[in-house]
Amino acid sequence: MIIPWETLAPETLENLIESFVLREGTDYGEHERSLEDKVADVKQQLKSGDVVLVWSELHETVNLMPRTQFHG
């Protein structure tokens, strides 16, 4: 189920995004990016609709994923 990110308290959204960014361990190439930059990128992707916030009833977890990968 997609959770509208706009309904979350700003602090909660920030914590979810930070947790996601830290757990992903993505390689950003030759230049490492700051946590703040990575969080800002994810927020922008949420706003544009490219990324969605998803609740899994099966696992009782919240995750971020590309909209194209969500099959709810």
Q: Please trace the helix and strand order, writing H or E for each element.
A: EHHEE
User: What multimeric state do the chains show?
Assistant: single chain
Compute the average pLDDT. Answer: 89
Number of strand segments:
3
- Poorly predicted runs: none
The class by helix and strand makeup works out as alpha+beta
What portion of residues is helical?
40-55%
User: Whole-number radius of gyration?
Assistant: 12 Å
Number of helices: 2
> Strand count, sense and closure of the main sheet?
3 strands, antiparallel
Strand portion, in percent?
A: 15-25%
Instruction: Tell me the overall shape.
Output: globular
- Strand order, main sheet: write it out: 1-2-3
- Give the distance, in angstroms, between the N- and C-terminal Cα atoms: 6 Å
Describe this structure in words.
This protein has 2 helices and 3 strands. It has helices at 10-24, 35-48, and strands at 2-3, 51-56, 61-66. Strand 2 (51-56) and strand 3 form a beta hairpin. The model has no long low-confidence stretch (mean pLDDT 89). Belongs to the UPF0270 family.
Write the layout of secondary structure elements.
Elements: E1 2-3, H1 10-24, H2 35-48, E2 51-56, E3 61-66
Antiparallel strand pairs: 1-2, 2-3
Helix pairs in contact: 1-2
Organism: Scandinavium lactucae
Pfam families: UPF0270
Family: Belongs to the UPF0270 family.
Key features?
alpha+beta; three-stranded antiparallel β-sheet; 40% helix; globular; UPF0270
